[in-house]
Design brief:
The complex is a heterodimer. By secondary structure, chain A is mainly α. Chain A contains 6 helices and no strands. In chain A, 38% of the residues are buried. In chain B, strand 1 and strand 2 form a beta hairpin. Classes of the chains: A mainly alpha, B alpha/beta. Chain A: One of its GO terms (cellular component) is cytoplasm.
């Protein structure tokens, strides 16, 4: 698209786009590193993820300030308005993703003390890979302004939910097998929940990008498949 | 509050506002071309002005929006070299038909200009002049009532009721513009054309006129030319975008300012033109 006549407006808009791209890359990295720290018992890496979160908080503040200023000074309309609106929404989602990754990193120490076996974290690792791929794809879509894959990406969130549900069952089984697993597994359960939530944020971003590009809502709502809230322990199960 | 995901909120707040398609067409232009001598200013424009709606005409300078507006009450007749072809109707009647009385047409289609242009007479005279020459008031009392009603309609009555005999030119710019609106509505027009009515006004006076436009919409059909995108977005229900004498697109204002179909509209309203 051609440039704005007012150069400063153009600069404001590209500032927003750049910051979102930066935040996206940062959030991805935080998530990937938090799970790696968990799998590899790497406390140092975990601590770095925790401090890294400040970068996202600061970026969110900058985007908020710039967006408010752009609205006040330029009264953006049409595609500009949708871009500013998307920047506000997406930055909020990315900041939350950072918080969730930080929360995973914070748990590494506690999980480490429990000396978990590899099998306990395998599921988390896999869930993370799937979610990270989702996040990467929506951020690519933001960068390239392409919406062809977005509804597919959003619908794939069901896979994450389904995997989370099965992970929930699995961790429950370990806890019932041996009560000494309870501390570790509870932490892991929170980690899994965090990752599942990151998937939801990726879905939000997909919807925001779709609106930004198309000026319309993404077609119909998908069914939710996180059934973990229905899981209960029946008498005799797991014995 | 009960929320139904398919229907929106139970009180209907989340459901779409009824489209302006439901309003009947008041004035309709079909294949309108306008020439100034050899130079063509408007090319094959088809544009409907709907009843009790505000239609905003936007576009860069020289795009033909004012020229089109002036076709709607045959103001262009006063320019000798100007020639209009195509069909413009009001309530289905051709306004360029030889049988049409232009003076009567301009009473039905009033106009407010960019710069407030009160007559160099009293406030009362400014408003009463039109009704008098059109014979709309039978008695002095009738005329006084009509003046009051018009000034009230233009939101000016309380400010001028004690000085109706003072010259209209002594009012502030914003008041003068409202006086011109009062003058326009005094002859009970059906349509009011406004050519950048707020461009000479400060923000407060602009806000008052915009508020007035929104009230006038209940009883009149309004077409407004404006250079302010925000004003078009605020006051109109339909927006028509002109460029180089062509009508680029016309749509509900909401759509035009959030998701316009045409690239030229997009580029113009976001400040990317040329």
């Amino acid at each position: 698209m051609s440039q704005h006549t007012v150069t400063a407006f153009e600069e404001d808009m590209s500032f927003l786009a750049h910051k979102i791209a930066e935040m996206g890359g940062h959030a991805e990295r935080m998530m990937e590193q938090s799970v790696r720290a968990l799998v590899e018992n790497d406390l140092q890496l975990a601590r770095r993820v925790v401090t890294d979160d400040l970068v996202l908080d600061e970026a969110l503040r900058l985007i908020d300030d710039k967006s408010v200023l752009v609205i006040a000074q330029r009264q953006p309309v049409a595609s500009d308005l949708r871009e500013v609106f998307a920047a506000i929404r997406i930055s909020t989602d990315l900041e939350r993703i950072g918080d969730l990754a930080k929360n995973i990193a914070k748990r590494v120490e506690a999980i480490n003390e429990g000396k978990h076996g590899v099998r306990l974290v395998r599921g988390i690792e896999h869930l993370c890979e799937l979610t990270l791929a989702q996040l990467k794809e929506v951020l690519d879509a933001y960068g390239t302004l392409s919406t062809d894959k977005l509804s597919m990406i959003r619908d794939r969130d069901d896979e994450i939910d389904a995997m989370y549900t099965s992970l929930f069952r699995e961790l429950l089984t370990y806890m019932m097998e041996d009560p000494r697993n309870i501390t570790t597994c509870t932490h892991l359960l929170f980690c899994a929940k965090n990752i599942e939530r990151i998937g939801d944020h990726a879905t939000n971003i997909a919807e925001a990008v779709y609106y930004m590009v198309e000026g319309d809502r993404m077609p119909p709502y998908r069914p939710k498949d996180d059934k973990s809230h229905k899981i209960s322990v029946e008498a005799g199960e797991g014995q | 509050m009960k929320v139904d995901t398919q229907q929106g909120f139970a009180d209907g707040t989340a459901t779409a506002v009824a489209g302006s398609n439901e309003f009947p067409v008041k004035m309709d232009g079909k294949n309108v071309n306008v020439f100034y001598g050899d130079k063509q200013a408007i090319f094959d424009v088809n544009l409907e002005i709907r009843e009790r709606q505000v239609t905003a005409l936007i576009g860069p300078s020289g795009c033909g929006k004012s020229t089109y507006l002036r076709c709607l009450n045959r103001m262009n007749d006063t320019i000798e070299s100007c020639r209009v072809t195509g069909l413009i109707t009001m309530d289905g009647e051709d306004i360029y038909d030889p049988s049409i009385d232009v003076v009567e047409l301009r009473a039905r289609v009033g106009m407010v200009f960019q710069k407030p242009n009160p007559f160099p007479k009293s406030i009362f005279e400014n408003v009463s002049y039109g009704p008098r020459i059109h014979g709309l008031a039978r008695s002095k009392a009738d005329l006084e009532a009509l003046v009051e009603q018009s000034l009230r309609g233009a939101g000016l009555w309380d400010e001028v009721k004690d000085r109706l005999q003072e010259p209209g030119t002594g009012l502030s710019g914003g008041q003068q513009q409202r006086l011109c609106i009062a003058r326009a509505i005094a002859v009970s027009p059906e349509v009011i054309l406004m050519d950048e009515p707020c461009s000479a006004l400060d923000p407060i006076a602009t806000a008052i006129v915009e508020e007035l436009i929104d009230e006038l919409r209940q009883n009149y059909t309004i077409a407004i030319v404006t250079h302010s995108m925000q004003q078009a977005a605020r006051v109109s229900q339909r927006t028509a975008m002109f460029h180089l004498g062509e009508l680029v697109e016309v749509d509900d204002t909401e759509t035009m300012f959030t998701n316009p179909s045409e690239k030229r509209t997009q580029d113009y309203i976001t400040g990317r033109f040329g």
